[in-house]
């Protein structure tokens, strides 16, 4: 199965920017969508942004206009550019890939990277 490795988290002041990157290892199976989810303390994991292999994107309402997701299919990478960050964006961010194996779509997850936005 595909392995996902994230990078780019950190501490930033409100109004600042961060860029998250995720690299997917080679896999015998195809990858459908790739995206980013986040989980804040005491809250459920939620979708931040997702991008399909054809480039179609969708975003959580809370990040529209501030975050941009991009993908390089040839390199199996996905990135999340986060601008105008707010304290409520503080969370662990997880890279996600939908891998299509012999049995259907499987969700694969990275280890997570911490994003902290100070006020």
Structural class: mainly beta
Average pLDDT, to the nearest integer? Answer: 95
Number of strand elements: 11
Shape: elongated
Strand fraction? over 45%
Number of continuous helical runs: 0
Low-confidence stretches: none
Helix fraction, binned, reads under 10%
* Order of helical and strand elements: EEEEEEEEEEE
Largest sheet geometry: 7 strands, mixed
Round the Cα radius of gyration to an integer and report it: 14 Å
What's the N-to-C terminus distance? 40 Å
Structure description:
- There is one protein chain.
- The protein is mainly β and 119 residues long.
- It has no helices and 11 strands.
- Strands 2, 4, 5, 6, 9, 10 and 11 form a 7-stranded mixed β-sheet that branches. The protein has a 4-stranded antiparallel β-sheet with strand order 1-3-8-7, with no helix packed on it.
- A hairpin with a 2-residue loop joins strand 9 and strand 10 (104-109).
- It is elongated, with a radius of gyration of 14 Å.
- The mean pLDDT is 95.
């Amino acid at each position: 199965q595909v392995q996902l490795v994230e990078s780019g988290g950190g501490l930033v002041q409100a109004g600042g920017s961060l860029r998250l990157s995720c690299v997917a290892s080679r896999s015998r199976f195809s990858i459908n969508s790739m995206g980013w989810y986040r989980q804040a303390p005491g809250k459920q994991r939620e979708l931040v942004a997702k991008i399909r292999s054809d480039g179609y994107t969708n975003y959580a309402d809370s990040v529209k206009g501030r975050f941009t997701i991009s993908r390089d299919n040839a390199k199996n990478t996905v990135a999340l550019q986060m601008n105008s960050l707010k304290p409520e964006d503080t969370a662990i961010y997880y890279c996600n890939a939908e891998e299509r194996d012999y049995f259907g779509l499987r969700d694969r997850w990275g280890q997570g990277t911490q994003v902290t936005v100070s006020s």
